[in-house]
């Protein structure tokens, strides 16, 4: 029996060893983590550190902005998920929105420019709160200031993404009263949901991104960090929706200026601009209708007032702002001084929908990529009929349960549209020169059709050929008046030698 008991004890011991070995093999990650912690503990004891406290309250009792930004930054660190302990909090505004925070006595590590840093929440009993930043002594001079600037920059971006956007409207209040009334900006439009030519959308997105990152660039040029856009086209083509999508993309509040309420003169418009906050989109709709005059004011007086609002000296206080103007008609009846670059940098033309624009809307509203009725819809558009995106969207919303019924309604609507008459034939005009240095951009329409002309940095055809033609015409006339036989400059070789030879012959003939 003793032998049997010893055999049982031995078997139990071997089993225990086997289980321990198996557990060690299966939990090798825990063992590796323990080894890393031991190595880190030994390494930390061999280093000299400098400690910097970031209190919640400053010496005068005011809130320390750096504490709020540092706390937001630390809560976004990936190392917080691997920390030994952290606090889990939920958002009061959104359900199922959880976030980690650094609890009292907890620490989170970070790395910057090759240096290792650590944040510790050294909360005191009074509830004031302190964050302690630990930096190696030999790294503190090199990384401290750039790191704190990095912390503030990241925290500002996080706050801009999470803050609630607001819509402001001028109330027309007298001096001393509230100039703006606000409400939450809940428009759901985004650049991704706007029906627009993909290439055009990419250009607009790139232009907005360049503006967001261009603070140092604008200041180096000595220019106000501001960008202005003109959205023009027929009513219902999506100009206001596109402006809302721009605000969503930028994360900017919207200030909608009603020019009819700003009836106190130019100073009132400037005061409205000075009352706006940075990171805002200032929207002025129906600019052309306002410039036509009315209510006892001439068109010239209103134009002068708008010019001062666009780029007067007071506009220098409007940094980090995007100004968007809309017009329901064309640009022909507007003073060119209003449209010049610097006042309106980017011009985007919104037109009525053609078949390509219809397909984009049908994909968004009805989820259709193709349909047996598409040939009939295309035939209606090829006949010259056009519908606005607003009209097509309303038809598709009303018939969203039946795509076939929606398409038949579109076909019927196209049949009742009277196509516009063809433009009258006009005599040929001299080529119009355009400048590549103005920064003026003329985009295509939201319906997906390219604009007939593009001016500025996005133009694909340079005006050099037009310039040569105009120069040859002037040269031809001058020589004809002087009795000199004209030379065909278009026959010159690409390297310009033939032109030089022709010029030499002309000089010899003149002598």
UniProtKB/TrEMBL annotation:
Transmembrane stretches in the record are 6-26
Gene3D superfamilies in the record, alphabetically? 6.10.280.40, P-loop containing nucleotide triphosphate hydrolases
Annotated keywords: Membrane, Transmembrane, Transmembrane helix
- Annotated spans, Disordered: 484-511
Regions of biased composition (Basic and acidic residues) lie at 502-511
Residues forming the AAA+ ATPase domain are: 225-354
| Superkingdom classification of source | Eukaryota
- Specify one Pfam family: AAA_lid_At3g28540
What the record says about family reads:
Belongs to the AAA ATPase family. BCS1 subfamily.
Name of the featured protein: AAA+ ATPase domain-containing protein
User: Which organism was this protein described from?
Assistant: Urochloa decumbens
């Amino acid at each position: 029996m003793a032998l049997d008991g010893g055999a049982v004890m031995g078997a139990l011991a071997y089993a225990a060893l086997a289980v321990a070995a198996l557990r060690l093999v299966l939990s090798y990650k825990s063992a590796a983590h323990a080894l890393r912690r031991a190595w880190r503990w030994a390494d930390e004891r061999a280093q000299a550190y400098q400690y910097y406290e970031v209190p919640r309250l400053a010496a005068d009792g005011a809130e320390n902005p750096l504490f709020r930004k540092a706390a937001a930054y630390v809560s976004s660190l990936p190392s917080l998920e691997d920390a030994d302990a952290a606090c889990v909090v939920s958002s009061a505004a959104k359900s199922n929105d959880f976030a980690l925070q650094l609890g009292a006595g907890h620490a989170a590590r970070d790395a910057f420019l090759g240096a290792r840093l650590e944040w510790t929440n050294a909360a005191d009993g009074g509830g004031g709160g302190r964050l302690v930043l630990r930096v190696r002594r030999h790294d503190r001079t090199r990384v401290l200031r750039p790191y704190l600037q990095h912390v503030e920059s990241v925290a500002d971006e996080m706050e801009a993404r999470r803050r609630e956007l607001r819509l402001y409207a001028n109330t027309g209040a007298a001096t001393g009263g509230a100039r703006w009334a606000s409400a939450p900006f809940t428009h759901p439009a985004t650049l991704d949901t706007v029906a627009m030519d993909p290439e055009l959308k990419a250009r607009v997105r790139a232009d907005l991104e360049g503006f967001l990152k261009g603070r140092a660039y604008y200041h180096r040029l000595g220019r106000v960090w501001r960008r202005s856009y003109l959205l023009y086209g027929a009513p219902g083509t999506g100009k206001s929706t596109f402006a809302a999508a721009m605000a969503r993309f930028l994360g900017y509040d919207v200030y909608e200026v009603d020019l009819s309420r700003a009836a106190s003169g130019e100073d009132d418009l400037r005061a409205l601009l000075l009352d706006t906050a940075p990171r805002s989109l200032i929207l002025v709709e129906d600019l052309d209708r306002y410039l036509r005059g009315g209510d006892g004011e001439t068109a010239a007086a209103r134009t002068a007032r708008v010019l001062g609002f666009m780029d007067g000296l007071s506009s220098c206080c409007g940094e980090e702002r995007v100004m968007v103007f809309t017009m329901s008609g064309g640009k022909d009846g507007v003073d060119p001084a209003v449209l010049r670059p610097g006042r309106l940098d980017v011009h985007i033309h919104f037109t009525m929908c053609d078949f390509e624009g219809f397909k984009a809307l049908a994909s968004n509203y009805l989820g259709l990529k193709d349909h047996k009725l598409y040939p009939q819809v295309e035939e209606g558009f090829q006949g010259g009929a056009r519908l606005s995106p607003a009209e097509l969207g309303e038809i598709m919303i009303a018939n969203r349960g039946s795509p076939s019924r929606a398409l038949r309604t579109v076909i019927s609507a196209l049949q009742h549209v009277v196509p516009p008459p063809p433009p009258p034939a006009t005599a040929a005009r001299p080529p119009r020169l355009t400048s590549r240095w103005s920064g003026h951009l003329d985009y295509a329409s939201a319906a997906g059709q390219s604009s007939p002309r593009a001016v500025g940095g996005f133009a694909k055809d340079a005006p050099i050929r037009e310039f040569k033609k105009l120069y040859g015409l002037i040269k031809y006339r001058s020589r004809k008046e002087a009795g000199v036989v004209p030379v065909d400059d278009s026959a010159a070789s690409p390297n310009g030698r033939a032109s030089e030879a022709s010029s030499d012959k002309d000089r010899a003939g003149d002598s």
